[in-house]
Amino acid sequence: MAKRFLLVTEEWAGSGHRMAAEALQEVLLENEGTRSARVVGGLKTASPGLCVLSHFFYRNMLRYGQPVWQRIYEQEEMLGRALTKALGWWLSARLTNQLLQEEKPDVVIATHAYCLSALAEAKKRVSKSFQLVCVPTDFHINRFWVHPEIDAYMVAHEQIAQILMERYRIAPKKIHVHGIPVRPAFTTALHTDKATWKKQLGLVPDQFTVLIGGGEGGYGGVEQVVRELILEEQPLQVIVVTGKNASLYRRLADLLRTKSNDHRFILKGFEPQMWQWIGAADAYITKPGGISCAESLALKTPLILFHPLPGQEKHNCSFLLEQQAAILAETTVEIKEIIRSWRQPEKRGAFAGDLDKLGRPDAVYQIAQTLLQLTD
C-alpha cells in the first residue's frame, strides 16, 4: 500500500534543514510506493508568531552573541528536557489540529529538532498512528533529537550511532547509518570531472579554482577571505556565493570592481545549483554547516573550514578534523597558505583521496528506501 509522507522542517535556522527535506521529497515522489510527500515548516504551521520570534532571536544571537549561544547550546541536557515537556506539549496540540489530522501521514520525518518533541507528543493524540523518523543534518547529535516515541534515526556516521546507543540507550534496530541527504543532483554530478564542470561553466579548465560560501546567510567571514585572496600573487579563479545576504553582495561588488590583478572573480548571490560550482572547485572555503560539508564530501571537493558558527557547526568542525576530511584555517593568511600547497596536484589529490570514507552521495536514496520499508 502506497504511503503518505510528511516532512517537517524549519527554515528560520538556515536553509540546510529544508534542503534535506526537499531532497528526500524528490526521491520519495519518484517511487511508486509513495502516495504523497509534503514538506512543511513545523513552527510556521504551529505558531507563526513564535517562528518569527525564534528567527529574530537566532539571527541576532549569531550577529551579536555567539559566545552566549555556544553556552546555551552546551546546556543541551537541561534545555532538551525542558523543551520536551513544556514546548513539546504546547505545540503538539497545534500540530495535531492544524496539520496531522488533515494530512493523516503514515510516516512523519523531521529534519530539524525544534518540533520533534511536539510531533512525538502528537503521536499520542492523533486518531491515525504514524511512524516518526528523525534525520539530523549534522555530524553530531544531542538530546533535542532523542525521544522514546521516535521509531527510526537516520544518522550521518557510525560515531553518532554509538552516541545514541551508549549515551541515550536507543535500541540498535532503530538506528540507520546512511549519511546526510543531499539533493539527487549531487549524485549525478559526481560522474562529471572538474575540468568538464569548469568548461561547462565558462571557467578556465586548467586554472586553480576556489569556491567561497557562507551558507544562505552569507556568514563565515566571506569578505575577509576575498580581501586576502586578492593579495595572492599567483592567479586564481574564484567564485564567491553570498546567498541571500544582499549587503555583502553589494560590498563585494564594489570591492571587486576596483581590484587590479590577474585573478578572475565571479560573484553570485543565491545559487540554487551549487553542485556545479562545488563540482568545479579545487577547494571550497566555507563555514561547516552540515549540508554544505556533506555536499562537498559527496563531490570529493577538499574543504577549508573558516569561522564556524556556535553549536552544531563547532561540533561538525571537530568531527571533520578528527576524520581528516577538512582543514580548519584560523586566519585568512592560513587559507592562502593552504591554497598554495594545494596548487600541487599530488598534495591536493592525496587529501581528496581521504574524502571517500565520509562522502555519501547516495544517502538520500538509502534513507528513502528505508522510509518506504518502515511498517507500523
From TrEMBL:
Chain segments annotated as transmembrane: none
Boundaries of every Glycosyl transferase family 28 C-terminal domain copy: 229-339
Gene Ontology biological process terms from the UniProt entry: glycolipid biosynthetic process
Compartment annotation: Membrane
Keyword list, A-Z: Glycosyltransferase, Transferase
Entries under InterPro entries matching the protein: Diacylglyc_glucosyltr_N, Glyco_trans_28_C, Glycosyltransf_28_UgtP
Top-level division of the source organism's lineage: Bacteria
GO molecular function terms listed in the Swiss-Prot or TrEMBL record: hexosyltransferase activity
The Diacylglycerol glucosyltransferase N-terminal domain, residue ranges: 17-182
Keyword Glycosyltransferase among UniProt keywords: yes
One term under GO cellular component: membrane
Homology family: Belongs to the glycosyltransferase 28 family.
Official protein name in the record: Glycosyl transferase
Protein's organism: Brevibacillus antibioticus
